[in-house]
Amino acid sequence: xxxxxxxxxxxxxxxxxxxxxxxxxxxxxxxxxADSSAPVAEADRxxxxxxxxxxxxxxxxxxLTLDDERxxxxxxxxLAFLRRVRDDEYLDPLADALYTEVPADRxxxxxxxxxxxxxxxxxxxxxxxxxxxxxxxxxxxQAESSTA
Length: 148
Prior knowledge:
Elements: H1 11-32, H2 42-61, H3 68-86, H4 104-118, H5 127-147
């Protein structure tokens, strides 16, 4: 006999849940930026459908829980990022001192996440992209440790 409350999800169940959560977050993002000069377009939704699950998986692998506010902040960042990828635009370098805010292993893990998304698109994200996304995870980590 199985118990749906305690039994682990099957892979198809996990995929469906991830899709629904991604759609919900994308809808929240679309609502948040609806009145901006660049609302969420269908191409954005498709790209977010690929990138947001990678971000969610990365957070889970890091043992992080992203609260609603952090999820939306990361989604806003992801939207701007995927548009830069699509438009082949690059952020300027950031000051070297900023890189000391994130341990090297966490920067490397974030680089792997970004490369997973970018490599099939023929885009090499600059280190500044990696740092900015990694800082979102660091803020989540600090928030968790301050409430523990």
